[in-house]
Fold this sequence. Notes:
- This protein is α/β, with parallel strands linked by helices.
- It has a single domain (about 5-225), classed as Aldolase class I (TIM Barrel), CATH 3.20.20.70.
- Helices cover about 45% and strands about 15% of the residues.
- It contains 13 helices and eight strands.
- The protein has an eight-stranded parallel beta barrel with strand order 1-2-3-4-5-6-7-8, surrounded by seven helices.
- β2 (about 40), α2 (about 55-65) and β3 (about 70-75) form a beta-alpha-beta unit.
- α4 packs parallel to α6.
- The model has no long low-confidence stretch (mean pLDDT about 95).
Amino acid sequence: MITGSLVALITPMLADGAVDTEKLDDLIEFHINEGTHGIVAVGTTGEASTLTHEEHANVIRQVVKKVNGRVHVIAGTGANSTHEAIDLTRSAKEAGADACLLVTPYYNKPTQEGLFQHFKAVAQAVDIPQILYNVPGRTGCDMQNDTVVRLSTITNIVGIKDATGDLERGQALLEMVSTDFAVYSGDDPTAVSLMLLGGKGNISVTANVAPKMVAQAAEFAIAGQADKAQDLDSSISSLHKNLFLESNPIPVKWAVSQLGLCQEGIRLPLTPLAEQYHAAVRQAMVEAGVLLV
């Protein structure tokens, strides 16, 4: 089972929006050195929605090659077309990813039965561990716990990234699924609390900026060491908040650029972080100890 801090990695870009392959390699080394337990490539934070299929596949291949088995690589391969999701998932398997992360189909508003049939079809088509991803605030589609339970019985559907931020719902899901089905947080402010309830990890935006602290907090939380986990988490709570002052990944890409790890490149329709938010994000980084005053 994949556990711990799984960074929802940004896709570094040049000023013209081209993928910065050199900085991508550097980011991977940075995360491995800082103790990140796994890399999630081309998810929401990785701007999967604006990459071409070729770029998508190339980023996954590069991440797998650079990681070289040192940590797990999870590839974002979700789509609102079942055929497209199958194609992306098959490509990720061929690239050597350890698992795939599949977001609920966005925009077209499938029923719960439609969600079940969609994820079942992808799982049956591609023999690779698959993690469901529910983020209704972005997709306009909410996969209910009962549907997750049904899907959890499919052998290669091994977990879910729950980005609802609803701890009561997360706790209920943990009680409904078997212990070999992993529930991951996709909401940094509540991630430690979910892991203390039995969640297996945090697919984290904040880990892009403070990887060591997010990884240590995850280790403590999964081990049930609540005080240590919560103390660490409180030291980065401002990051959890301020990295969402504008739509993700706008603030986090700016923050990573302030660490000197990438340029400020981002693709339309996303735009660089508005100047009015620079001070708040910078202050959160200072409070977390990742940026000097």
